[in-house]
Fold this protein.
Amino acid sequence: MLTPEQVQFYKDNGYIALSNILSDSEIAHLCAVTDDFLERSRSVTKSDDVFDLEEGHTAEHPRLRRIKRPIKQHPAYERILHHPGLLAVLQQLMGPAIRHYGLKLNLKPGGGGEPVEWHQDWAYYPHTNDDLCVLGIMLDDVTPENGPLLVVPGSHKGPVLDHHQDGMFVGAVTDPAAEAMYPKAVPLLGKVGDITIHHTRTLHGSAANTSPGYRRILFLTLRAADAWPLTEMPESLETFNEMMLVGKTPASPRLESVQVRLPLPRPVDWLARRDSIFEKQRDLRNSPFARPEKTRLGAAAD
């Protein structure tokens, strides 16, 4: 359980880092399952329904950057959604009833694994209220060199930044107002099994992995049960309610006065890109991560 001080830190800063929630055996199993997918990717030559591959991927030197829809790929990933320790923490931050929004497993290969451009998750999936968060489980030690998650403290209380370029949603921040925010970012470092949680409106990204090894993080997207999507509602109410993890299923959404920028219009091939944030962001010009003098990422990681 979180202390009142930890809860307040999350409310003030829009993120929190935690340890000792998952057992060593639970983490070891998740790592072993993920290792197996990495080995299986050696037999794949291009991205498919399971594997999202970086350019240069080979059987000898696999460059797997994401396992798509992990909840559908192995029961270990689905089970972690129902972990009582994680749910207890989430209930302290978002209330007694919680629904999931899916899982993502980002594997950032060593030797230059791609950055994830600055963005707010809220830009991708606005809801009727912003009681949403993303919980990350480290499956490798996360260091300054291997592309840690970078978050801007307090940015969840600020504006919803523009993620459009030439009038088209590109899934990455293009708003000039963000330029002054990047140098304030802090890296979320930790050991295997450590956990981070960031608010859906917290500005974040991650630089390239310059270490020799992988940096793997399993991300769980969670929401208060009364937060209903403004775009891409599930095909039926029954399907939506199957995403309930704990608490009483609400009969209607809770509406809050929260700024929204709809993630529209989108490229015509958006659905083909939907399981890869790297593909979603590929149209961005002038990446801040290519301008270290602007973002001061090295200073942030120190």
Q: What stands out?
A: The two ends are 30 Å apart (CA to CA). Residues 4-301 form a domain with the Jelly Rolls fold (CATH 2.60.120.620). The first strand starts at residue 15 and ends at 18. The chain has one domain: 4-301.
